[in-house]
Amino acid sequence: MRDDLKKAETVENTLRLHRAVEEGDAQAVADLLPTSDPLAKDNDGLTALMRAAYDGSADIARLLLPVSDPLAMEDKFGMTALMLAVDCRHTETVQLLLPISEPLAVDNDGQSALMLAAAKGHTEIVQLLMPVSDALAQSHLGDTALMRAASCGHSETVQLLMPVSDPLAKNGHGWSPLTLAVQFGHTDIVQLLMPVSDALSQGNHGGTALMIAAREGHTEIVDLMLEASNCEALNSKGDSAATMARSRGHEAIAKKIESYALAAAERTMLSEIAEPAAKARSRARSI
Q1: What are phi and psi of 278, to 5 degrees?
Q2: What pLDDT, in 10s, does the model give residues 33-68?
């Protein structure tokens, strides 16, 4: 009977503990800890520490750390307390949890804490995580932290990650960080990535960065990419960049690409004509 009463008290106090964490009541948390179960999960699959990390309650997290296990506990999405703090941009809580957490752990989608920070553009947190993370790691979809930052338009985060990342890496669709930046129209990031990327690279279905820029109607990016691209390349359906632009109603872009391709072909032809003539003059001078 006494054991049953004690179990009931523990259950009740654990519910009260979770409410106190949600309400940010550090004193109530301290009072309830001796008679509650801090490792129990709520209906969202969160322990008291996870909830504190999610809410950014660093003071409460400090109270819970001695009686919690940040390495073992995950929510239903595979997120650890550190990941929750990272995803919600709680820098102080991240600093608190990082020394006792596994920064290389991944959630159910194969995303690490660094990938989550990069996707949200949490630059300060990215800086904290970089020394203990693997920027080359890829999620289940093949995305790297650099890809997440590039696709989400976080130029400062892209600059931070570039020195420790592989700009030529491809995700499951065969897309590189450059291709992703192009798709979403992030011109500033395209400019950052162009010098270290391969504009001729093709995705799983043969698409190039120029084709994607043309299809999406990103005129400024098309201008940036023309010189480094093959305007006459075809995807697996036989479409060129100009064809794709025209199919989406971007006639001006289609004409721009076709004009550039024609001018490039003319330059090549003139060069091929001029080269034999130059060799002949050289031989004549040597006689």
Answers
A1: -65, -40
A2: 999 999 999 988 899 999 999 999 999 999 999 999
One DSSP character per residue, 63-106 reads HHGGG--TTT---TTS--HHHHHHHTT-HHHHHHHGGGS-TT-B
Helix, strand, or coil (residue 7): helix
Helices (H) and strands (E) in the chain, counts: 16, 0
Q: How far apart are CA 168 and CA 17, in angstroms?
A: 48
Answer whether 127's CB lies under 8 Å from 160's CB.
yes
The first and second tokens of residue 223, run together, are 């201008």
- The Cα-based distances of 121 to 67, 97, 156, 178, 215 in angstroms read 32, 20, 8, 17, 27
Q: Give the Cα separation of 123 and 76 in Å (integer).
A: 27
Per-residue pLDDT tens digits for 237-261: 999 999 999 999 999 999 999 999 8
Q: How many residues does the chain have?
A: 287
CATH numbers and ranges of domains, the chain: 1-78 (1.25.40.20), 199-287 (1.25.40.20)
Distance, in Å, from the CA atom of 27 to the CA atom of 140, rounded to the nearest integer, reads 42
Half-sphere exposure of 83 (CA within 13 A, CB side): 26
Place of tokens 């930046």: 181
**pTM of this prediction?**
0.88
Backbone angles phi, psi at 192, to 5 degrees: -65, -40
